[in-house]
């Protein structure tokens, strides 16, 4: 199955061969790979090279290393987690600008909400409507309820994403929402007007989902994202200005 590693880049060659074997389904999820010592003999490489290659494969989400008597190198089940983690890191390090995220979200989430309306069931609607009361509690607490409002919003978005029944949406959008709202709690003051605005938007979106009005759901979703991006950028500039002025 494997061949002696080429000298051009031993680590890269080991990674490529094992990756190709996994992606070609020559190993199934949860299968145990040969041990590091066995791989060392198979590839004719040093133990350090094998360990470095396995670390790269772990980072890519293809294998996991378990310790203990029943440990070893195991093939991981494919999941969206590595994609989500990578995107989340880009957002936290500000490698993707808020304006870029807003443009992406408007297109993707605006289209996704239409799919959600196609998929939603009466049971789903009952679960979605529970968020109305949660939002109302946060609204009644005014500015003190801002952070709880954001947490409720993240939970609702996760449910909406799940209703699309599409792993691509889940991999990308969950990473965005789980990270971007950390900025909201830092850069946005959560004043009464902002909470009321967000509350009104969500009531319109939930109403549109319940009535099956795709056009309204998409329009309000896009406008909500646009305003959120605008508020976030204003808040970021305000915080940075205050830091420069030593406030």
Structure characterization notes:
- The structure is a single chain.
- The chain is mainly alpha-helical.
- Helix content is 72%, strand content 3%.
- The protein has 10 helices and 2 strands.
- It has helices at 10-23, 36-43, 47-59, 81-92, 98-119, 122-140, 146-164, 167-187, 192-211, 214-244, and strands at 63-66, 72-75.
- Strands 1-2 form a two-stranded antiparallel sheet.
- Strand 1 and strand 2 form a beta hairpin.
- Helix 5 (98-119) packs antiparallel against helix 10 and helix 6 (122-140) packs antiparallel against helix 7 (146-164).
- The radius of gyration is 24 Å and the shape is elongated.
Which labels suit this protein?
10 helices; elongated; 247 residues; mainly alpha; two-stranded antiparallel ribbon
Explain the layout of strands and helices.
Layout: H1 10-23, H2 36-43, H3 47-59, E1 63-66, E2 72-75, H4 81-92, H5 98-119, H6 122-140, H7 146-164, H8 167-187, H9 192-211, H10 214-244
Antiparallel strand pairs: 1-2
Helix pairs in contact: 1-3, 2-3, 4-8, 5-7, 5-8, 5-10, 6-7, 6-9, 7-8, 9-10
